[in-house]
Amino acid sequence: MMRSPFAPLPLLLFIFILSFLLVFVQLGMLTVAFEKLGVSSELGFILLFGSLFGSSINLPLFTIRAEPPSQPPVLPFWGLLRPPQQPFTGKTIIAVNLGGCVIPVAFSLFLLLNRPVELGQSLLAIGLVSVVCFLASRPIHGLGIGMPVFVAPVTAAITAVIIDAEVSAPLAYIGGTLGVLIGADLLRLGDIRKMGTPFASIGGAGTFDGIFITGIVAVLLT
């Protein structure tokens, strides 16, 4: 009998959150976030759902040699899918996640080029959020890098308001998304070698705590 790839409780949680998201949209909260960023609701929703569904797509980049895990991996509760455990062969495939990396980076570049945000301000926000994310993130043996969900958006929102309150929304999104990618992913590549995981995805932390959503929450907090 074939085992279902969907874990029952996370599947129910997925349905609940999706329903809540639709209500959230009806209340206009996401519209407010997109208006703060200076983009239309239509473009915002395309980016949102592209990020949500793109989180299941990983684009392999290269392979690195890695050490075997020192302890068995702890299976995460917060996941919709229960993929079969891949055997560790002494190598780790490094990939980028479409919804959690490619789309947020592209949108951040769009904001940087089309909104009155100075490059120096953006680099400062990205740098500060990167430092906090690096310090708050931890390697999880056999799985990847973990970090409390609200560390990045809260840090990005506070940083953006302090740097320039007039353009805090795009600053919060840029700092929040790129700060997570740099601080909790790129700067942690060295830890990946010691974790014994066969696959590591940059920006692939998950759907609802993904980097795109981090940016949206950061904008709502400004």
Question: Which key features would you list for this structure?
Answer:
222 residues, mainly alpha, 3-stranded mixed beta sheet, two-stranded antiparallel ribbon, 9 helices, 5 strands, globular, disordered N terminus
Task: Produce the secondary structure layout.
Blueprint: H1 8-26, H2 29-37, H3 41-54, E1 58-65, E2 91-97, H4 98-114, H5 119-136, E3 138-140, E4 144-146, H6 151-163, H7 168-185, H8 189-192, E5 199-202, H9 211-221
Parallel strand pairs: 2-5
Antiparallel strand pairs: 1-2, 3-4
Helix pairs in contact: 2-9, 3-4, 4-7, 5-6, 5-7, 6-7, 6-9, 7-9
| Strand residue content | 5-15%
Termini separation comes to 51 Å
Give the topology string: H per helix, E per strand: HHHEEHHEEHHHEH
> Runs with pLDDT <50, length 5+?
1-7, 75-84
Describe the structure.
The protein has one domain (about 10-70, about 90-220). A three-stranded mixed beta sheet has the order 1-2-5. It starts with 7 loop residues before the first helix and ends with a helix. Helix 6 crosses helix 9 (about 210-220). With about 220 residues, the protein is mainly alpha-helical. It is globular, with a radius of gyration of 18 Å. The longest helix has 19 residues, at about 10-25. The protein contains nine helices and five strands, in the order αααββααββαααβα.
